[in-house]
Known about the structure:
15 strands; 46% helix; eight-stranded parallel β-barrel; alpha/beta
Amino acid sequence: MTRQVFCGNVPIGGGAPVSIQSMTNTNTRDPKATLDQIRRLAEAGCQIIRCAVPDMEAAEAMKTICKESPLPVVADIHFDYRLAIAAIKAGASKVRVNPGNIGSEDRLKAVLDEAKAAGIPIRVGVNSGSLEKELLAKYGGPTAEALAESALRTAEKVEAFGFHDLVLSLKSSDVPLNLAAHRLLSAQTDIPLHIGLTEAGPGDRGRLKSAIGIGSLLLDGIGDTMRVSLTGDPVEEVYLAKDILRALGLRKGSINLVSCPTCGRTSVDLENVAKTVQKALEPIEAQREALGLPVLTVAVMGCEVNGPGEARHADLGLACGKGKGLLFRKGESLHTVEESQMVEALLKLVEENLEMEREN
């Protein structure tokens, strides 16, 4: 288990749930536009937000952003250590720095001292596109070993200054390389890890790479906080991050909807039934997530071959037949309903289950 740090009121590591991050793509110098986007991200389920701080004007705007943001704000700093110090004084809850481009060790130490005095963590990390020349020469390129060694070397450098509230990140756009590097790194440190797949790209291909890349890490038990990196509206990053955590059973309160792909034996419009159920479950799922309830599995199955078994193994289930559906709860068959009443009857079971969980 990794050790724990806090970004604002959000715990990172130490067995805490994996937190979801994103990054604004507004001009940080414009506090209103940036705060508007942060509020949209918060509504979508983001828990930590990062803002680029490219100059002192942006650092000055961080005073307003940090004060009014509903989420803890991370300042993203490159090249100028003075920007990091200014962002910390502006109220940042965490600072992301790259020691490789922040300047001399004295400048890095000045940032660490300021963060330590403010009681906030620092995220440091490496990227396959900015590895040290000597490591590229040693390993013949940006290999998993080179990435892991660079991250560990960076952590040792920071901790040598007596600063231990660290989060490490290590990112590549190559899915297998990203996984291999994280496996090497996580086996050698207890520092909390910020995971992701850098520069995943736009659209479905970016979503697919992110789901595989981040999901494989989480299945290995690697990762304390995460960001999906897509080209476009950052709100879409948050939605995908939530979906990844739900699919892995790592998001409390989520509803795992199981439905079959249909075949020639299917005698109902299962696609429409499943989509209708999915849409109707969204507000119920939001309530469950707010309450931190256990994951609930709901099955909607289309024929007599696997339908009854899958529905019986779910917490709540519906096995559809010709013109009728059989309802299940916790492995027990309840009763049949007419096809026109199937969705309503299943949703009633879900709502009743929510009320029972609330009472308990």
